[in-house]
Amino acid sequence: MRRLFEVAMRIIEGLAIKEAVKELFIKLNYSPVSLENVVFADSGMDSFEKQLAEIIDENRKMAKTEKRPLCQDCGVAQVFVKMGKNVTFSDSPSLEILINKGVEEAYSEGLLRKSTVADPFERKNEGKNLPAFIHYELCDGDTFEICGIAKGGGSENVSAQKMLVPAVGREGVAEFVFETLKNAGGKGCPPYFVGVGVGGTFDSVAVLAKKALLEQVCEDKELLEMINEKIKDLGFGVLGFPGICPVKAVYVKKAPTHIAMMPAAVALNCHSFRTGRVEL
Amino acid sequence: MISADKELKAGNIVNLSGEMFTLRDNSAKKLAAMLENGENPNFPLENSAVFFAAPTPGFEEGRASIGPTTSARMAAFIPKLIEKGVKYFIGKGALPEAAKNVVVEGKAFYFQALGGIGAYYGSKVSSMELMLFEEFGPEAVYKVEVSDFPVIISIDSDGGIFF
Q1: Which long-range contacts (CB under 8 A, 24 or more apart) does B79-83 make?
Q2: Which residues of A touch B93 (CB under 8 A)?
Q3: Residues near A128 by Cβ (< 8 Å), separated by ≥ 6?
Q4: Which of A160, A272, B128, B157 is within CB 3.0–4.6 Å of A71 for a Cys-Cys bond?
Q5: Nearest-CA neighbor of B116 among A133, A63, A25, A251?
Q6: Chain A interface mutation, best of B13, B24, B51, B117, highest count of A Cβ atoms under 10 Å
């Protein structure tokens, strides 16, 4: 058969992928790029809230200088792979093996806590923090990109997904974000970084909300303004105590959906916001 | 025993020093079962402090992190622990009403530790010793010795409440 284009495959060393995953998850737990320019203490806070915010700011510095993980909950490893169709890799029959190996080495050599239990009922900890939770996206070209998020159980437990009806519009989605934050209170370690996903399907909308956290974008300014307006009435601040700063940032992503549907998801991330990206 | 640099009065931020025992989901459940069977653990519960937490490895290297997990998940075990003499509970977030009442009636204390500052707290730990339930990995019971460990007094022994 005649081809329109001759395409050369790009071969990435598998061991380089494993190393990149390992370095990414160690970096996330000690000094993630996502927290580089973040300061929580604010002159508008009262002395109580400011004292808590200053300790959080101090924690970030100590994690870096003393080489201690930012939080003892080093999360489960969530990995988002974007792979061009002209890319392949060596050293392993599957990408999954390479990624899991990288995660295993990161949590072991990086002195990170292994929080995964193998079975939700038996709850046995096998001490490897595996498996990584991996999402794959195929694209054109020869891109190979890995995004990671190390997210603890506290803020994952207060995240939420809901199938809304289309008629509620932005107002209804903003209300759902508000309710989710209100229910979360101090449980998930605010100030929160909030990832909102709207559209898609029951399953994909939660991934969309996570991608909002990873990409730190806003695809709907009008919704963002409504959410920001409602947040003022939450009535709690740093770590859920009385204060003015329950939320540090809100990110929004949206997707096409069915005529009958308005799926929405709110991925709450604690103040220890650990996301990052590597390209190979 | 636990001591503090300020009065243990609801609403105060104080620095604690002394000994605590870590406990959480799996270990709390197993300890409660032991106590129900009339067995005693290998550490004293009378006047003790229980910290709902699980540390990272790396204490020997001077690199451990430790911090509170959500206390509400362990609330069901609080009455039994108070009955056995536990005096201080340290964890994250509010307690359900029933547990609050048990703490108040038992003249015990509930302190809220700050969530997500594991590196900071880790630097305040001077010793960490594995006591029980090694099979639970990070969820095992550790005896930790702390100093200048900041917490917010949420329930004091006079029934004062701050959440």
Answers
A1: B80/B32, B80/B35, B80/B36, B81/B32, B81/B35, B81/B45, B81/B50, B82/B106, B82/B108
A2: 185-187, 240
A3: A104, A107, A108, A114, A116
A4: A272
A5: A63
A6: B117
Contact A270 B25 (CB under 8 A): no
pLDDT at A8: 85
Q: Which two tokens stand for residue B138?
A: 């990070």
The shortest CB-CB distance from A67 to any of B54, B63, B66 is to B63
Q: What is the mean pLDDT of residues A142-155?
A: 96
The alpha carbon of A187 is separated from its chain's Cα centroid by a whole number of angstroms, namely: 17
Using CB atoms within 10 Å of the CB of residue B69, give its burial: 0 to 12 exposed, 13 to 18 middle, 19+ buried: buried
For residue A185, list chain B residues with Cβ-Cβ distance below 8 A.
93-94
Indicate the pLDDT class of residue A1, thresholds 50, 70 and 90: low
Asked if B54's CB is within 8 angstroms of A69's CB, the reply is no
**Cα–Cα distances in Å, from A250 out to A146, A213, A268?**
23, 8, 9
Cross-chain Cβ contact B117/A73 below 8 Å: no
Percentage of chain B modeled with pLDDT above 70: 100
Q: Which residues of chain B have a CB within 8 Å of the CB of A51?
A: 13
Q: What is the ipTM of this complex?
A: 0.92
In one-letter notation, the amino acid at residue B85 is G
Q: B 113-132 residues with CB below 8 A of A?
A: 114-123
Rounded to an integer, the average pLDDT of B26-43 is 95
